[in-house]
Structures are given as structure tokens and as C-alpha cells.
Amino acid sequence: MQVLVLTRKKNESIIINDNIEITIVDVQGEQVRIGINAPKSVSIYRKEIFLEIQAENKKAAEVKNVDLKDLLK
Amino acid sequence: MLLKTKHFGEINIDETKIIDFKDGIPGFENLKRYVVLYDGDETSPFRWLQNVDDGQLAFAVVNPFLILKDYDIEIPGEAVEGLDIEKIEDVMVLSIVVVPEDISKMTMNLKAPVIINTKNNKGMQVVLDTDRYSVRHYIVEELRRQEVNAGACSDKKEK
């Protein structure tokens, strides 16, 4: 089992299992409203899409000096 | 302006072609100006998204519609507004490609495409409000699938 702690802001989302979306709808003091869009029964893991895309972008930036013409053969 | 780039050496950038990414892109928020370059072969679906502020930063990008024929996106309102998009013909959509050591495993980010308004040269990377598309979509595999599908369709026609 793992435990994860995430900080989110209003209107930011978490994507779970590629078919679940959890959105922070509202934050009032210590109260947080969360919208969840998900199938009824799924294995759940939390993932922060922005961080994911950021990481993906960083990976993409490591591209070696390839010839684009060689990418599809 | 002259720019020393990672992939092309020193090249001359046509300043009228510079695309302004107001918020940069995630992971590179401070680098805001890009140009789209191609590697001699205009018919290839691939391009470089070359940063102008940092010549060492360039992304291989691909026209996702040429890989996944039924890629189907709704341009988020934040992009329509943020990029002042008026006509769909002005919009260029690019997916950022991760090219690993094993090129056959390269992926494209269909979940977070780069949207460019070619009319005013404004761009941003958006996150689609859909679970249909992944940030790591295998390109070679997809092309094989499309070939198989195309084959299956033509078989049917022959019968």
C-alpha cells in the first residue's frame, strides 16, 4: 500500500486510471469541493496530469539529434 | 535573427514566424517563443518545435491527424479565447513526441496537444478534457493498426 499527499488548487484536476477525473471544484477555507467522474468500480491510483505532462515534456526535450525522416521507415 | 540550435547548428530565424507561447509549456514555463521547422522533407508528418529563447530546446512534434486518422478533439475554450481563434482553418495541432533510444517505441502526447493559431502566431499546450487520449500513444504501433484497418476495409470492398 502507498500513501500520497497532493496539494491542489481550485479548478485543477487529477486524472485516475485514464478514465476517472477528479476536479477541485471549490475551496472555501478548509473545505474543498471535489468533482469525481469515474466508473463505479476501478483500481484507483492518483496522478497529477500537469506534472505528468511536464515530465513528458522534459522527456521529449531530451530528444537526440535524430533526422525526422528516419523516424518512420 | 541567428540562432544556434541543437539540431540544425546556426540558423536564421524568420522573426515573423515566431510563435508566442504566453505561458511557455509545462516544464519550460519561462521559454515562450518557438518556431516550427521541418527537416527538408515537407511531406513528413514530423516537425521540430524549436525554441527561440534557448536554441538547445527543441521538441520533435507530429501532426496527430496524420498518425491517428480518427483523432478527434474539441479545442478547449481556454485556447479559443487565449489564442483568439476565429477560424478552425487557422489552427495547427501538434503532438509532442518522445523519442527514446529504441525509436520504434516513440510516443506522442495526444492528451496534451500543442495548439497554434497560425493567423496571429500564438500557441499553447492544452490538456484535453477527455479520457480517450493518452500522454504516451505509441506511434509505430498506431501506424501498424491503421494499416491493418485499411487492409480490412479494402478486403471488404473486394467482396
Structure description:
The complex is a heterodimer of chains A (73) and B (159). Chain A has a 3-stranded antiparallel beta sheet with strand order 1-2-3, with no helix packed on it. Chain A contains 1 helix and 3 strands. Chain A is an alpha+beta fold and 73 residues long. Chain B is of the alpha+beta class. Helices cover 19% and strands 30% of the residues of chain B. Chain B has 3 helices and 11 strands. Chain B has a 7-stranded mixed barrel with strand order 3-4-5-6-7-9-10. In chain B, strands 1-2 form a two-stranded antiparallel ribbon. The longest helix of chain B has 20 residues, at 139-158. Chain B is globular, with a radius of gyration of 17 Å. The model of chain B has no long low-confidence stretch (mean pLDDT 89). At the A-B interface, α1 of A face β5, β6, β7 and α3 of B.
From the 3D coordinates, which CATH architecture of chain B would you assign? Answer: Roll
Class per helix and strand makeup of chain A: alpha+beta
Helix content of chain A: 10-25%
Shape of chain A: elongated
SSE layout and pairing:
The complex is a heterodimer of chains A (73) and B (159).
Chain A (H helix, E strand, L loop, with lengths): L12 E4 L3 E9 L2 E7 L11 H13 L12
Antiparallel strand pairs in A: 1-2, 2-3
Chain B lengths: L1 E4 L3 E4 L6 E3 L11 E5 L8 E6 L6 E5 L1 H4 L9 H6 L8 E8 L8 E2 L5 E4 L4 E4 L11 E2 H20 L1
Which tags fit this structure?
heterodimer; A: 73 residues; alpha+beta; 3 strands; 18% helix; elongated; B: 159 residues; BH3618-like; seven-stranded mixed barrel; globular
